[in-house]
Sequence to fold (215 residues):
Amino acid sequence: MNEVRVECVTTQGTILVDRGGAEPEAFPIENNVWIVGDDEQVVIIDASHDAGAIAEAVGDRETLGILLTHGHNDHVNAAVELASRLDALIHLHPDDLFLWSETHGDRLPDIELAHAASFMVSGVELTTLHTPGHTPGSVCFAAPSLETVFSGDTLFQGGPGATRWEYSSFPEIIDSIRTRLFPLPGETSVRPGHGAGTTIASEQPALENWLARGW
Fold:
């Protein structure tokens, strides 16, 4: 049997940030795109900025699905092109369709994600964890046999994801982290949508500080 591995493709793009001016400002951003599988088949977690680079990393392996952690543009903007290149289906939680449509209009994802939905790739199970807060339809994907959780923009090294939009909720993201992620084993590797990874055990002690600071 081929060894199952986790690969990261770092892609670059821009996001628009409203600083209170006449028009939003564009800022550069790097995203982590995760590929899980072996030499024969993979699943892809998020589809950011550069469909060509992601498809090149996949190569001739079968893509069983493109799993999106949430609907923000920088996580989904390459999804439609990538799905076409790889003949793969796009999965997104329905609560984030309003964000998806800002990027892709009437072209809908193929399959709705739900809490506890599972995916098998090369004998490894990934389980969907609905973790609202950053966005209403944010999810993470836990792979216990790999001692890994793909956390999207829900949990980072040093804190939770941003909750600055009217559809976001700081209490909700804290509840998601507390009830969905922190029960995972402490040695679980957290692989986020941006930046360096961490572990569940590394982040658990900071919860009270996050609550005190309100982020």
The chain has a mean pLDDT of 95. The longest helix spans residues 170-181.
